[in-house]
Amino acid sequence: MSHGNFEGYGGRHVPDLLQEPLEQLAAAYDEVSATDEFRAELDSYLEEFAGRPTPLYHARNLSERYGAEIYLKREDLLHGGAHKINNCLGQALLAKKAGRTRLIAETGAGQHGTATAMVGALLGLETEIYMGKKDVRRQGMNVFRMRLMGAEVNEVTRGNEGLADAVDAALEDFAENIDDTHYLVGSVVGPDPFPRMVRDFQSVIGREAREQFQERTGELPDAAVACVGGGSNAIGLFHAFRDDDVAFYGAEGGGEGSDSKRHAAPLARGTDDVIHGMKTRVIDEDVEVHSVSAGLDYPGVGPEHAMFRAVGRCEYTGITDEEALAAFRELSETEGIIPALESSHAVARAIQLAEDGEHDTILVNLSGRGDKDMETAAEKFDF
Amino acid sequence: MSRERRAKRDSRNERAVSDRGERSARSASSGKRVATDGGTDSDIERAIRETHPALIAYITAGDPTLEETKAYVEALDRGGADLIELGLPFSEPIAEGPTIQAAINRSLEAGTTPDSFFELVDGLDVEAPLLVMTYYNMILQYGSEPAVEPFVERAAAAGLAGIIVPDLPAEESEPLREACENHGLDLVFIVAPTTDGERLETIMSQVSGFAYVQARLGTTGARADVSGATHDSLARLSEYSVPKAVGFGVSEGDHAAEIVEAGADGVIVGSALVDLIAEADEPAAALEAKAEELKRGAMRGAEDVPEPEQP
């Protein structure tokens, strides 16, 4: 018997203490998420609080320049500035229905922590965010935002004071408080049921985009492109098209190149491994995890992507820091849209595909906006 | 190496039998019966039964260096540890408390690798059987292809008697269990306070050596008292014949006594020892003294009539 298997990837590789709470969460999810009441309530929050549906934008200037019709799914226009809110609303509402009174989450750059703080405030759940001390120092504004919305931000000083240490601290909290606490995982990673649950909550992206694209063009896109860190926005886009004749492209954080020793592209270049409670693809041992974008700076990836790679359903490529920054600038200049550095990886991949000329229509998930990346960009561009 | 170690252990076990009266002698004879049945069976289970109640000591290998680990293992062995668990550090552990986390970081910073770890074990000459505690990742990645066999083979060659893998669910343990059986190693599982029903049965059908009973919710780390969950867990496990050892939060002889009194066959101590390594002026001496205290405590818990207080 195995939980949440994606062709051998996934599973529930956690200490026994966490098996039971995960089992309970999976049961609550299966039971509650199927009810009309839950769906109606979640839909109303998605619409009124988060700002769904998001537009599908035909990027005409970019299309003209590169010779393929490029469409952007504007998740950057959501409340909070990224797709993260789709998942946070779903999980927080589920937690509340399951009788939990407290949310915890870890955050690196602060985006997921901010989205968790938003839903915690909305639903009246006590919220505690774990964040490495190094990140707290680098992301002062996000820390302030979280605290402003009433979340407790816990500075993690152990180990390397980074995201991995924040995960440890959050897991420790979860292990001690399983009775009243929900651990709100931010991506399609970790032990079952998180990969499938987060996927389901993010699938609204692809459902909307599919309908919008058909309405607009009468057809489906030839290709769908998204960036992949943990992989939630990509799975969210892909899921509605999984049985269609639509090619999938995942753009990973290629750092200094997926052949280099500094990247975050375990699907383009990695190995089968068990990490953070799941069996998946992980970067090679001698590679230092690195991406210019904090949201892609992760050594593993969601197990469903590992499966997509194994069965050949999606092609994964590392987009280098340099390529991502060029696309970041390009979209800002040609369309007046500043994408998140994460999403810039998807834009860069779409531009490559357009130049290759294999696909006539390309749908890109613009998963977040770039406001948070201004400082990084300012360091790179000499204006 | 491994055979030598076993011979030494056997001689010590005989001493233990003569020293410790009827209860130990009874366990020893049942151990012998198993041995004459042809199966070598479990070194670990035998050690626990023959030294009952057993003291199981954990330290992180390579904290702060592998050379020092060697001295510490010998000190624990002298102090009365009946089994010694060595942590092989992994950069992404799950649910370890801050104490063990810090030890893992120190060891990784010192450059501990699986190969250097095995070399340490090759060179160890102690009476207590040794176990390795590590994460599934470390096992899968040892060797050229992701597979469990090379690690287990190397562990057996180094003379290790068992493996504990906190992030390996019993449902997915088949390949590792088979490899362990092929190489004569025990595979120990952790039973949490929340483990019950079908999951408990699955675990108990896979476990060998001993069942690692997690005393409380939460992560590893020294605590000031013994949890009530310990009593519940031991009661839930009473129908299973495999020895039960209780860990998580044990730091003093009195805890050890209480745990053994509650029916445990062994007491596992980790964070309290790791604290000594990090803080004591002379860690080896401190470890030896702590092991003595804990072993005395465990023995006291096994007496029907409480011993007079130590002076």
Automatic annotation (TrEMBL), chain A:
GO terms for cellular component: cytoplasm. InterPro entries: Trp_synth_b_CS, Trp_synth_beta, Trp_synth_beta/beta-like, TrpB-like_PALP, TrpB-like_PALP_sf. Residues 50-368 form the Tryptophan synthase beta chain-like PALP domain. The modification N6-(pyridoxal phosphate)lysine is found at K84. It comes from the Archaea. Belongs to the TrpB family. This is Tryptophan synthase beta chain. It comes from Natronoglomus mannanivorans. PROSITE patterns: TRP_SYNTHASE_BETA (PS00168).
TrEMBL record, chain B:
Residues 1-44 are annotated as: Disordered. Keywords: Amino-acid biosynthesis, Aromatic amino acid biosynthesis, Lyase, Tryptophan biosynthesis. It comes from the Archaea. GO terms for cellular component: cytosol. HAMAP family: Trp_synth_alpha. Belongs to the TrpA family. Residues 10-25 have a biased composition (Basic and acidic residues). It comes from Natronoglomus mannanivorans. It holds the Pfam family Trp_syntA. Pathway: Amino-acid biosynthesis; L-tryptophan biosynthesis; L-tryptophan from chorismate: step 5/5. The alpha subunit is responsible for the aldol cleavage of indoleglycerol phosphate to indole and glyceraldehyde 3-phosphate. GO terms for molecular function: tryptophan synthase activity. This is Tryptophan synthase alpha chain. The lineage of its organism: Archaea, Methanobacteriati, Methanobacteriota, Stenosarchaea group, Halobacteria. Tetramer of two alpha and two beta chains. InterPro entries: Aldolase_TIM (IPR013785), RibuloseP-bd_barrel (IPR011060), Trp_synthase_alpha_AS (IPR018204), Trp_synthase_suA (IPR002028). Its EC number is 4.2.1.20. It is an enzyme of class 4 (lyase). It catalyses: (1S,2R)-1-C-(indol-3-yl)glycerol 3-phosphate + L-serine = D-glyceraldehyde 3-phosphate + L-tryptophan + H2O. PANTHER family: TRYPTOPHAN SYNTHASE ALPHA CHAIN, CHLOROPLASTIC, TRYPTOPHAN SYNTHASE, ALPHA CHAIN. The active site is at E85, E96.
